[in-house]
Amino acid sequence: MNFDPPHLAALSAVLQLGSFDAAAAALGVTPSAISQRIKALEDRVGTPLVNRTSPCTGTETGLRIAKHAEDVALLERHLGRDLSLETTDKPARLKVAVNADSLATWFVQAMVAAEGVLFDLVIDDQDHSTDWLRRGAVSAAVTAEAQPVSGCDVHALGRLSYVATASPAYVARWFPDGLTAEAARHAPCMIFNAKDRLQHRWLETHVAAAIIPPAHYLSSTQAFLDAAAAGLGWGMNPEVLARPYLARGDLVELVPGSRLDTLLYWQVSRIMAPALREITLAVRRAAGAALGQDG
Fold first, then answer.
1. Which of 73, 104, 183, 217 could cross-link to 92 by cystine, CB 3.0-4.6 Å?
2. How far is CA 79 from CA 87, 139, 278, in A?
């Protein structure tokens, strides 16, 4: 099935900007023209593509078609460069799944090095980011999975080290006799979201199995650090971010030297890999510099 490029551009603009009016302004046409293009595209595929809410969102089919349009733009940009053809100056858009801690520690440097690309990031746990690849919703992902998703290439990035930290006052209150299994069952910890298993993995390794402590849910890397320093709970923080807090004495390790390392990988769609070669190189360089291992 062939799609009309103006129709695809209208769909992408509506989903990126959230309204028909904003899409019309971005493309230099009237809102009526945008509506007609979306309607023509929906008639062609036989299903709604846009949820006409505020802001507008894509249906499952609409998101897949918009992702296809973004991939085509990336491939055309790559082909034009390879053939030294005159191409549009409009940057291509790339959708990537990445975990919040990588974004907070090193991934932004890769984004800065990848010129001519607008990133659309999906934030998800490193143990689950490949689910987005399997659904075809992203073109690449930072993940903890070494096994390649079908149709993807894998590049090792290095180790993101975590340390179990809390404030000195918190440790004095909850672990006055040391970090025992009984104390760990009652001391509140912090969890990023329901997918986050770092705290439980650390407890199984350094305290005991089957401990389920009470937990606060904080879906922010910086809030994790600040809340730990304030005494809200203990949690697994990236060592590189916790280092200044530890140096100042705002945080202490629950068990000194008990790092928990997470191996990270870059998985990229094999079809898109040639067009994303420069971005893959930028990701591997940024990860190698930050994670202490050449990607």
1. 73
2. 10, 17, 13
Crossing angle between the packed helical segments 31-45 and 20-27, to the nearest 10 degrees: 110
CB 287 within 8 A of CB 171: no
The last residue of one of the domains, among 90, 109, 140, is 90
Identify the domain boundary among 65, 90, 115: 90
Instruction: Kindly report the CATH number assigned to the domain that includes residue 171.
Output: 3.40.190.10
Residue 79 corresponds to which tokens in the numbers above? 């082909």
CA distance 47 to 62: 9
Average pLDDT over residues 35-62: 94
Give the model confidence (pLDDT) of 122-156 as tens digits. Answer: 999 999 999 999 998 999 999 999 999 999 999 99
What integer is the mean pLDDT of 278-294? 88
Give the total residue count for the chain.
295
Q: Is residue 293 part of a domain?
A: no
Give me the domain span that covers residue 173: 160-261
What is d(CA 179, CA 127) in angstroms, rounded to the nearest whole number?
Answer: 27
Amino acid symbol at 50: V
Q: What is the CATH number of the domain that holds 53?
A: 1.10.10.10
- At residue 84, the pLDDT reads 64
Please name which of 137, 176, 140, 165 lies closest in space to residue 155, comparing C-alpha atoms.
140
Asked if residue 294 has pLDDT above 50, the reply is no
Say whether pLDDT at 68 is over 90: no
